[in-house]
User: What shape does this take?
Amino acid sequence: MSDKDLRPLFHITGGNGWINDPNGLIYYRGRYHVFFQYNPNDIKWGNICWGHVVSDDLTHWEKMPIALVPDKDYDKDGCFSGSAIEWDNRLWLIYTGYTVNNGGQTSRQIQCLASSADGISFEKHGVVIDSYGLPDGYMPCDFRDPKIFLHCGRLYCVIAARKADGRGHILLYRSDDMFKWEFIGDLFGRDCDGLMIECPDYREEGILLFSKLVQQTENGCMDDYHTVRMCTGTLDLMTGRFDATGEAPCDYGFDFYAPQTFSGANILIGWMSMWSRSVLNERYGFCGMLTVPRKIYIENGSILQEPIVSAVDVVRTEVKNSFTDRAKIGVIDIELKNPEKFILSLRKKENITTDFILDGSEWILDKRRSGEVFPDNGKETDSGAVVRRMPSDSSENKRIAVVMDEFSIEIFVNGKSLTSTLFTDEDADGIELVVKADSCIYTRSEIV
Ligand code: FRU
Assistant: This one.
C-alpha cells in the first residue's frame, strides 16, 4: 500500500485535507455530531470551514456535507472554532468569524451564529457578539472559540480573550434569545501564563477545560509549549468568577490540544496534534486526526477519562512473565495488581519498538526507537524521538487501556491519559508484554 492510501480506521480525519480542533460536539436527535476545523482543499491550515461527521456508536463515522464555509464578509478568512446546542427545536452553532484585514492587531475575531432544523444543512444568522461586545482593555484580534451551554433556560457561553497588555483570559456571556449577549465577567480575573487561551469549555458538573497557547518554557523546550489544562471548581453564573478547587494536565502526551465536550453527553474529543509541530502531511497526503471519544467524569476530586470504542474481545489471557501478540489496530486492556515491572512494547518490528514502561512512580512512553522520521525543524524535542511521562497513582490495582489505530496510540491508566501520534513502519505490528506483578490479565479487542 502506498503511504498516501494509509488512513486511521476509526479516528476522524479530514480525508485528503487538513483538520484541527473538534467543534460543535452534540448529541442531537439520537446521533452524535462532530464538526471540526477543516481545509478540504489542502493538507495545510487555511480556508477554514467546518467539516461534519455523524455516528450512532462513536466508532463509525459518516461524512456529511461541509456545514460552514467562510463566505460572508464577517467570516471570509475562516470559520473558527465554536460549539453547538439544541434550542427551540433546532441545532445552533456559535463560532468565530475571522477577518485578516491588514494582519496582526488589525485582524478581527467576532462571534457568529448559524442554525439547522435537520442538523445537516445550516443557515447563517450573522454576527451576535462583535468587538463592541468586548469589555475595555481586551483585544478584538484575539477573541474566539465560544462554548455555549444552557442553565435554567438561559444561555451562557465562555469565550477566550486576551488583555491588550497581558495574556490569555476567559470571559462569560449570557443571553435569553441567542442573538443578544451580555458580558458577565472574567473567569479568573487575572492573566494566565499562556500567551493566549484557546477553546475554553465549562461543564456544569464543575469541569473547566482550556488550551494554553505558548506558555513560558525552560530552555526553549517544546515539550510543553502548548498544553491543555483541566480544572475542577464552580463557575458563579452571576459574577462570571470561576473558583478552582483543583487543576491538572488534561493529557500527558505530545499530541493533544483543543479538546471539547459534547452538549448532551459527558464525552470529550481532542485534536490529536498541536500547533508548532512538524507534520508528515506531504508524505501521507492528509493532515490531522481527532482523538477517540472519551467519557469524562469526576471521581474523588479528579477529572478522569475512559475511551469509548465499539470492539469485541479476541484474546484474553493471564500473563505470568511475558506474552507476545500481533496487532496494530484495536484496544488492549490490562488489569494489573501490584506491578513491580511492566514493559509493553507496541508496533514492534526488528529493531523498531514503541515502549510503555512503569518506572517507579511514573509511566513512560518511549518513542526513541519507534522508527518515526520527521523533518528537522531545528527544535530538538519537536520530533518523533520523544519520551513522555505520566505520574502513576499509588493504588495497587492499575487498569490500563491502549487504543491503537494507524498513526496513533492513546494510553489510559486509571483514568489519566497519554496521547501520541505514531508514524512508524506500516508493517510493524508486534506486541510484547513483560511483567512482574501479583496478577496481570491481558485482553485484546478488535473494532467491530
Ligand atoms: C485552536 C485554534 C482556535 C481557533 C482555531 C483556528 O487550535 O487556534 O483558537 O479558533 O484553532 O483554526
Remarks:
- The mean pLDDT is 94.
- The pocket of beta-D-fructofuranose is lined by residues 20-21, 37, 48, 80-81, 96, 144-145, 198-199, 257-258 (CB under 6 Å).
- The first strand starts at residue 18 and ends at 28.
- The radius of gyration is 22 Å.
